[in-house]
Amino acid sequence: MVKFYTTKENKIVEVEKFVENSLIKVIDPSADEIHMLSSLLQFDPDFVYDSLDDDERARIEVDEDTVLIILKIPKKFDISSKIPYRTVSVGIIIGKNYTIFSSKEPVEFIEHMIKNSKFDINKKSRMIFQIFLLNAKVFLAYLKEINKTISIIEEELHRSMKNKELEEMMYLEKSLVYFTTSLRSNEIMMEKLLRGNIIKIYEEDKDVLEDAIIENRQAIEVSNIYSDILAGMMDSYASVISNNLNIVMKILTVVTILMQIPTIITSFYGMNVKLPIQHNPLAYLYIIIWSIGTVALTLVWFKKKKWL
Fold it and tell me: How far apart are CA 26 and CA 23, in angstroms?
């Protein structure tokens, strides 16, 4: 899908075809659409193909008058996905009279910015840096969600004897690895933009880029902290789960021993031999009292030994 946008009366509006200083949104394009755009705007079609590859790292590539920026953004997947948070690629292709946003799927915050005219298409560098800044904030928002999920899983782990919660933590740790790796590559890419003369940066735009770098660094630190916390928790709670299971096994063993006592006593009186008080009409009651008393004494002994 290819859509063209321009600015009219300070609003971003969709137009039917390419015009000067257009913003072009490319979502999961076909080979024909990529060929059409690259022929029309005279840029390397690999720029679009690279932006559709989620395994691409954040980077900058320059080809004559065209610049490709690969930005890594966070994405939350549905509950059916084992790894709930991952990162995907967005390509920003900057030409003399156009800017292209290319991705495999729609990016929610970019869609929102276009729909609500949150940036000026004619100010390319500021528009791109605003996206960098908002992307870092989205990372931080998802990291807060991960922290809440960790707290919920932690509560479950206190009374759990299964591996489900540990598996959930393992998948969250993988998400944090994706986040940390992508945030670091984003930082390198943004610092390269800040230091180099790759695209023209005005002084007021430079402040936005510096804010984006600061937010990105904060996201890296938070991601590292949560990753360390998760690693420690997984080690600790693996021992907790094992200990919980040992406690249950101990209780079941004690119950089994206590249940064996009346069984042994009644087994004696089931033998076909002469036994004490076997002719007494209250023999059955005596046996029950004897069994209960023996069980009670054994239970007291277990408690003194601190086995319960």
Answer: 10
Place of tokens 């932690």: 154
> pTM, whole model, 2 decimals?
0.74
H helices present in 158-202, as ranges: 164-195
Q: How far apart are CA 105 and CA 189, in angstroms?
A: 22
At 172-187, the pLDDT tens digits run: 888 888 999 999 999 9
Burial code (b: 16+ CB inside 10 Å, e: under 16) for 58-86 equals bbbbeeeebbbbbbbbbbeeeeeeeebbb
CA angle 200, 50, 130 (to 5 degrees): 40
Q: CA–CA separation, 145 vs 251, rounded Å?
A: 38
Q: Which two tokens stand for residue 296?
A: 């009670």
Residue 206 has φ and ψ, to the nearest 5°, of -60, -35
Q: Which two tokens stand for residue 64?
A: 């004559």
Contacts of 268 (CB under 8 A, 6+ apart): 275
249-259 in b/e form (b: 16+ CB < 10 A) is eeeeeeeeeee
Identify the pLDDT of residue 160.
58
Give the span between the Cα atoms of 28 and 72, in whole angstroms: 16
Give the residue among 153, 157, 132, 135 at the shortest CA–CA distance from 226.
Answer: 153
- Alpha carbons 265 and 21: distance in angstroms, whole number: 96
- How far is it, in rounded angstroms, from Cα 189 to Cα 203? 19
DSSP for residue 57: P
